[in-house]
Amino acid sequence: MSLPQFKLLRPRSASEAVEFLAKYSARQAERSEPAQTSRGSDSRGRLSPHVPSLLQSPHPHPPYVPLRVIAGGTDLIPSMRQKLFEPEYILDLRGISAMRGIRPQPDGGVEIGALTTLRDIERSDFIRQHYPVLSEAAATVASPVLRNMGTIGGNICLDTRCLWYNQSLTWRKGCGFCIKKDGDLCHVAPGGSKCWAAFSGDTPPALLCLNAEIEIVGPAGVRRIALHEFYTGLGDSYRRLQPNELVTCVFLPESSANYRGVYRKLRVRGSIDYPLAGVAVVMKRSNGHIVDARVGITAVNPAPMLVMGVSEMLTGKALDEGLAEAVSDLAARTAKPLTTSALTPEYRREMIRVFTKRAVLAANN
Amino acid sequence: MNKELIELRVNGRTHEIAVEPSALLLDMLRQGLGLTGSKRGCDDSSCGACTVLVDGVAMMSCTLLAASCEGQEITTIEGVREHGSLAAIQKAYGDWGGAQCGYCTPGFIMTVKSLLAENPDPSEADVRRALSSNLCRCTGYNQMYEAIRSAIEAERKGLAVAK
Amino acid sequence: MSNDFSIIGKPTAMVDAAEKTTGAGKYTDDLGLPGMLIGKILHAPYPHARIRQIDTSRAERLEGVVAVAVGGDAPNPYGILPVGHDEHALALDKVRYVGDNVACVVAASEAIAEKALELIDVDYEVLPAYFDPEESMKAETDLIHENKPHNLEKDYHHCFGDPDAGFAEADQVLEARFISNEVTHAAMEPHSTLASFELDPHTGKLGRLTVWSSTQVPYYLQHKLSLVLEMPMQQIRVIKPLVGGGFGGKSEVIPLEIIAAIAARKAKAPVKITYTREEVFWAHRGRPRTIIDLKTGVKKDGRITAVKARVVQDGGAYCSYGVVTILYSGALLGALYDIPNIQYDGYRVLTNKPACGAMRGHGTVNVRFAFESQLDELAAKIGMDPAEIRQRNLLQPPCITVNGLRVQSYGLPECIEKTVERSGWKQRKGKLGKGRGLGIACSHYVSGAANSIIRSDMPHSTVNIKIDRDGGVVVYTGASEIGQGSDTMTAQIAAETLGCSLSRVRVIAADTDLTPIDIGSYSSRVTFMAGNATLRAAVEVKKQIAAAAAKKMGCEVEELVFRDDEVKRARVGAGDSPAQGQPAQNPRGPNSRGPLFPQGSSSPPLVPSSSQHAEQASVSGRVEGQILRGSLQQKRKDEGLKDWMTFEEAVVAAIDFHGTLTGTGSYAPPQEARGGKHKGAGVGPSPAYSYSAQVAEVSVDEETGEVTVHKVWAAHDCGRALNPVSVEGQIIGSVWMGMGQALTEEMVWKDGMLMNPGLLEYRSPSSIESPAVEPIIVESIDPEGPFGAKECSEGSLAATIPAIANAIYDAVGVRLHESPFTPERVLAALRAKKSAKSLNLTEGVDPTAPERFREHGGVLLFKGKGPERHALDPARRASPAAVEGAD
């Protein structure tokens, strides 16, 4: 499977990258189907008469973006082979060394460049010591070689996944396409008009637990938002990032440093697999009592989620099995898995329960 | 055509080549430079048969754009031989049954090279973890562990003799 | 037969190991020819549809497109079995599964070809499709193949002995349904074929065809190409480069192999087609989803009295090897244990999915899972140790089983004994603590089919050997090296027989112009059959050398011993004989090819020697052989009369004497091994069977249902281990692949769509969850095998699945009836057993009742009705014209 044709932009600095973004991503296509040579009036053209009604539907397609950003490539390249993206431009960030690195801040906390590889995070003594949940989560992503390539920024921006979406063009043609790409029906929630593709990154639930913030750079300047504001909860337009914006940095605050942390991941194989369910737990204790705790889950919703009410339930208490079970019930209620991946949704939700209980108990020990 | 002229350093040599921006490093190595040792086994970056070293770090050449690797040092399986002879790991893979059909073998050897460069004395758990980036369908991995252990010993003996 | 071998029985690096470890070896996709074009295949998006019209004109107009081939370009049907010629390289009038082959674009590059595929307009009339075999068997209309009523490819009904009487005398009878879901080979190398025509100098038109292909069966490919292209076989040359694994997936003619040739003919240029991984899944030919209704009776003493099996196989849209698969499933109920009464009803059913075919352990694996699981349950019922119940049912060879299978060598008793001993079965079983357990199971497999799929009297293997004055031995064999070590086995047998070093032997394999016919690498036939042919060819050559050497030495032929590159008189005093002081055994590991310089030889290597150099000697053996030859020839001149000669001197003498030095050997299985007379008796008989017994140690997480296999002890009777390192590799690989089927691998279907057509979602185990496997070689020395050898590559797979199932039962007390044993299936079974809080894991269905799991291939992943189709989805619309009219 070859990649679609595109032009490659290779900025040397973040500011140059932003210039490219401003220049090349502005060309908004008028309709969701791009007028592109590689498409022409191919057999998918049959769908085009339907496009106007799509635009009127409550959940229109994400607007066509003529530019895609590539960092490690481990998410984008396989998707481009499947013709899930056929951009005119690829903005290649690999050459921007300034966006790489783990930089503890003088006033506490740490700044992690978006291009820092998952391997560098996994091996960082600083992260392991102060933000162990991130260390654990990073170490479970895909496989060692893929972690050599994949970046923290890429893991945060990871496209949502679904067995009906992450397939070749020929395959998707066979199933009549889906809401997330080229079609208007959902195969996992028939009759629905919402996309349920699951967010399947391992590090974001850990980052959510750590109250991480991200820096976004665009033509209008720099903005910094809490990570939980980044995700929309929709399977298709899953993140709040304008086409001309770039995630450049992740900040972990001093206030969440030195929490105990545990990440547990449901996968069929011990390597390579995306999570089928994932639970991150951070906890701070004093004199045997919990001072603060948070639980984040992934791969069971269109966004990574913080489980609400955990801190309230645990703060001031000494953890016991019953309390851990109560927390795991909260987590399981937050999980809304559908048949977007292997293993049944019912099983995956049950594993959110089991893994949360185990992770909470492990974080306590 | 929209080809771009780039300099690619592969196995210690610089090649000036014209590449499509969309050309993958794997295809450039195999078709452009005739280095067919790196293999394609999947289309979803999961099998590791195409693994090469980029500035000494193991990466999947099927997931890298060739043009993006300009200025970096690429090492492929063809660059592993030592002074025209089999490197210890290559010899050991043959002797201990680490390779059967051989299709995944170049990828595994590159993964092992990068493992041993970072950790010359890995535990069995370290080896298992490292090899989990690559899929093999013949061996069940067991004989690879023996091969790696034997290659480490051979290297050590070799070093001892050299001293 | 002497056990004192110089080559065989020693751990030996494969003859092509360096090619593989350096990346220098060429697989088909690594090849290129000047002017070569790339072919890409258009696949059907519907599981069952009639093709009204194909319009390729827009694709043909695209810059860079050279030709577009369609079904009409080569309409002859073909199939691997003579009874199953139901495939067309490209569809003629109908497509029968999502992924069926419709057209092929030939273009200057992959990207252009892919673009052109989008420009081919195909007008389909979508037909009702069948996905479940038991539903498909009820079909009256819209049949998948018009000549197969009820979509039944083939059914067989066998009865041996008196099963009713057998069940009547049993003390315990169990009956249950087992399901094994569909798995595929997933060899690391995607299929690839390069086809090129030569111009005929006399006619000026396209003449001979050469095809390089990733195939296990070059001869069958040549045969089918001839059939479809309507060319004489002698005009077609098939060459098999290195093959990156087969496991059965390349053991028949795969559509791209024919399509590449059709495309090359149409484009008048060399064409290469390499499958994407998704296309490999569509080409498939894997192990079918199998529904087994099994009934077994035993007496209190553990003796099996009768077995009754009803087997339904979901065969996919074409026959492929299906008729053979369904027969193996019944026939190989026999020849493992002594079963006096067997009833077998087998149904091979067509469905609108990719064709299933032969996969490692062809036909036996799923039924073996059911049988060994049920035997375990029966042992528990009568209070007998599971190892012991197996020992109570051994055959007494030599014998012929109730279904006509001849068994001679039978290492099963020793396999059970050894695996029980090594695993600490007696001391540890039941004492491993909560959630951890041991399970045992046995299996067996044929060493090649006694009857070839094309009925004829031709030998199954033929081998030629040529030796020239340089002393180099060239073996020409049609046997296909696919990673299993066939070339190495050939070289070893030739070298051992001729008494020469391995480095003298070059194997030329699997090139239909150069090598004599061999029917291919499948059903584990190569060592037994091609090995025997090699042995016979080598013996013939050796006779000629011996005659000349004996003359030179003035002795009888019978006095000569060929060994270590020397021919000598056996009666030579011990002290003078270079070979006598040979080291007992080489330690395992490097430099294990056998001594190049036998101890006691008076000619030291001329190369400066250090411990390091000695280790490298085996690598550069050819060069040093030259040096050695020079020195020895010098030595011979210096000395007087001959009581020994170098191999080369003997060869030169033989060529001087006979004029040429060549030998030929062939092998056809003996008549006695070819089985009974009943309908379908041709499948199952083999000249010899391998045997395996395994113990698996697993732990089960009772909260998650996750199963971890810690270790498998696998004893395998391979007759004689010609190359122990290879035999162990094959045993480990089989066990490992069985573990994949037991735990993680499953082809998941929804409405004819394969949900996991890639290595990311089809989960072939990684090194993390792969267990340690302890291979235990058992050598029963078969009377007909080459040096006593039998197969070692398939027989171990089948035992692993039930060994794991039985270990799960031992660990947590649940009996799994459906593979793979995914965590959700295990957890659901655990919850059902405990009748704990009802967990709606599988819509409330008790997974221990697998008959409830039949929807779309019995998969747990997808529930409920299929998706609603897109309004414009051609599957829903009346006709394309109607849709366009609605705009």
Report on the structure:
The complex is a heterotrimer of chains A (365), B (163) and C (887). Chain A is of the alpha+beta class and 365 residues long. Chain A has two domains: 7-94, Uridine Diphospho-n-acetylenolpyruvylglucosamine Reductase, domain 2, CATH 3.30.43.10; 100-157 and 199-364, Enolase-like, domain 1 (2-Layer Sandwich), CATH 3.30.390. Chain A has helices at 14-24, 51-56, 76-81, 118-123, 125-130, 132-139, 144-149, 152-157, 169-175, 203-209, 310-314, 321-334, 345-364, and strands at 7-9, 67-70, 89-92, 102-104, 110-113, 213-218, 221-226, 246-252, 260-266, 277-286, 289-298, 305-306. Chain A is globular and about 60 Å long. Chain B is an alpha+beta fold. Chain B has two domains: 4-79, Roll (Ubiquitin-like (UB roll)), CATH 3.10.20; 88-162, [2Fe-2S]-binding domain (DNA polymerase, domain 1, Orthogonal Bundle), CATH 1.10.150. Chain B is 36% helix and 15% strand. In chain B, strands 2-1-5-3-4 form a five-stranded mixed sheet, with helices on both faces. In chain B, strand 3 (51-54) and strand 4 form a beta hairpin. Chain C has 887 residues and is α+β, with helices and mostly antiparallel strands. Chain C has three domains: 17-23 and 458-667, Aldehyde oxidase/xanthine dehydrogenase, molybdopterin binding domain (Aldehyde Oxidoreductase, domain 4, 2-Layer Sandwich), CATH 3.30.365.10; 31-127 and 189-244 and 250-283, Aldehyde oxidase/xanthine dehydrogenase, a/b hammerhead (Aldehyde Oxidoreductase, domain 3, Alpha-Beta Complex), CATH 3.90.1170; 149-184 and 285-452 and 675-852, Aldehyde oxidase/xanthine dehydrogenase, molybdopterin binding domain (Aldehyde Oxidoreductase, domain 4, 2-Layer Sandwich). Helix content of chain C is 27%, strand content 22%. In chain C, strand 10 (206-213), helix 6 and strand 11 (236-239) form a beta-alpha-beta unit. In chain C, helix 15 (526-553) packs across helix 18. At the B-C interface, helix 2, helix 3, helix 4 and helix 5 of B face helix 1, helix 16 and helix 19 of C.
